[in-house]
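batch_manifest entry 22 of 60
target: Penicillin acylase family protein
source organism: Algoriphagus sediminis
requested by: lab member K.T.
priority: normal
notes from requester: please return tokens only, no post-processing; we will run our own comparison against the previous entry in this batch. if the run fails, retry once and flag.
--- input ---
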Amino acid sequence: MRKVLIVLGSLFLIAIFALLCVITTHTPKYDGDLDLIGLENPVEVLFDNYGVPHIYAENELDAYRAFGYVHAQDRLFQLEMMRRVGTGTLSEFLGNSLLDTDKFFRTLGISKQATISTDFWNNQANSPIKEATNAYIDGVNQFIREGNLPIEYVLLGEKPREFTVNDIHAITGYMAFSFAMAVKTDPILTKIQRKLGNDYLKSLSINTLPDHVTIPNFYPPSLSDSNQTSGNLQAMLKKLPVPLLKGSNAWVISGDKTESGKVIFANDTHIGFSSPSVWYEAHLEYPGHSYYGNHLAGMPFGLVGHSDFQSIGLTMFENDDQDFFEEKLNPNNPNEILIGNNTSPIRSRIEIIKVKGEEDVEFEVKETIHGPIMNSVVPEIAELTNNPVSSWWVYLQEPSRALEATYRMNRAKSIDEVALAAELIHAPGLNIMYGDAEGNIAWWAAAKLPIRNKNSNSKFFRDGSDPAEQPTGWLPFSSNPQSINPMWGYVVSANNQTDTLSTGDYVPGYFYPGDRYDRIAKTLEQRDNWTVEDLKELQNEVINLTHPKNAKLMLTAARLDEFPEFEGLFDEVQNWDGSHKIAEIAPTLYYKWLYHSFRMAMSDEVGQETFESFIQTFAMIRSTNLFLSDPENKWWDDVSTEGEEGKSDILTLALGQSLKELQAQHGNDWKKWYWEKSIVSEHPHPLGSQKPLDKIFNVKTEALQANAEAVNKLAFSLNGDGVYTVRSGPAMRILLDFSDVEGSISVLPTGQSGNRFSPHYKNQAKLYTRGEYRPQLMNRVEIENDSKDRLIFTPEN
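--- output ---
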């Protein structure tokens, strides 16, 4: 027995030693000294208690070279996933289960466009922007060659290739796609139109409705003009190892409405939950420059951030920047399409996809003058028509200048400089939010807006053979929606419809109905002495006022007397104020009932698969109130039966189904059907889909107050299971008062680092779940007091 104990003890010690070796080998280096090639002078990096690097350099290039290294050591695997999505090379790294995904992104054209943008970049004269970008890339690559690579590479048996500027453009392209709603929406709406007719569309909010809240414009006088596969698309996108960008809130309040008399800035971008979360914070200082930024993996300049003078944030504009043209083939030449009386060639290219452990896969991509033909990679399109359907996408119309735009914004010294930088963004559409120490507040809708045929609806396939359907140019940036120092004292953006242009037309898009905007704007109107402390409550609010209205419509129409034992539950729903706190009961019934109501109403006409795709789109959120209140809604009739059902019939059936399932799920006592029991909150890692790696890499949290369209939007997908996994939420929450820029606060959903062995992998998860914050330090003395880790980069001899 003694020998057995000795052997077991020895094995235990060996295992502990081996684990420590693994951890040491794959842990970021936060302390000590490192040689860095290309440095002119030493660079000091202080890591605060949350792992944010505060980089002190004597010149710009040294700062970005060091930043590239520390960014890579914390987020290299995330960078790997993002660049591989953009370049369509996931199969090479993760295997053939991602082959359809690679084909989709190659066909869409992101990889091709990255090459075009790279060529444009390389042909530009040398500049500080290019030098800073190249220095960052050099820092990333030195880490790839010499640093402690994350454990994911060992588990996959892979090594990273070097990072390039082409990868940056591919990452930008993926971000542009993430914002593009058309490919996920238009085929479904076109199917409904063609199969059922326009009468069925009347109960869906395809376009902005009169009761939707719009963002008011306030134009300044000084701005000048300048010029076939299996499954469906949604199922394929669920395989992506990186999160999709979903929406966002931002508001900026003028000093006239704050206690300090200075501008207050707030931003929370809504992005799919992931581990690590999307944003990486970094504070860079060198003579003449001090900036605290939020960066995407692989992006050297902050998309969101602030200096002591200005703060910049963003939300999704949600403009429609992608059209689908159904082409008419030339009967005399199948390699041509007809546009009026003219012909236009169909071009083709061969893409070669490397697949891990298998032979390379070749496939053909065909393109028309409108763009790539998508039938073979989007099942919903292939189901609709045998005619070629081309994707015309603003992002593919010119090289990306995102690097230049973000570099300029990070260094802007005036509101005019930010406006000029915003004009460089052609796609994806972004709402740029701005505030500064001089009291200016502003919002610009940054995007190139095409001039389209006003008689056509951009949500449906266009006739590619009709010359009148072709885009004819671009609106000048000065006409874009914007608000500069409005007299009402604030600007707000929450993915809702912008006000009409000077032409009197709405910008077409996939805008949300305005619940969040309305709640924020009406709250800001109530007082003129706002503080950061006061705004914490608003930023974390989980009340939505539309859903109680919907619930009352459902209660009024259903035959409640068929369920007398649930009278108390119906009273609970009747009196619901729209809160989604975890002890609420009304949301538990409401969302399940809502799902079954839409399912029973729609699936008999369009099929279960199309219905499931529809409820993932913006149209579901926009249409709910109209759908429930429209007295002529044709969806209520079950076309599979001989009789004609009405709203009361379907809602009663759906209610009965919901109550039965909730009893099975939570027990017979409805008073214990707490919202908390229906929520799963987890930040998934790309490798976390495989057990037992989910236990290692995924970050599970306390139950969140999941909701649909509250200010603190913690979104989930409707489903029949009644278990809702929070899919997205604020990817950070920032609050800043220009009376104390160094006292700005923020929080991330998980942590700074994507390295599982880093102490900063998930050390903000509890703060985030509980609606708490931590400082964004910029004061050197405070940083030194807070920092336990100091990394010194020295020039390599």
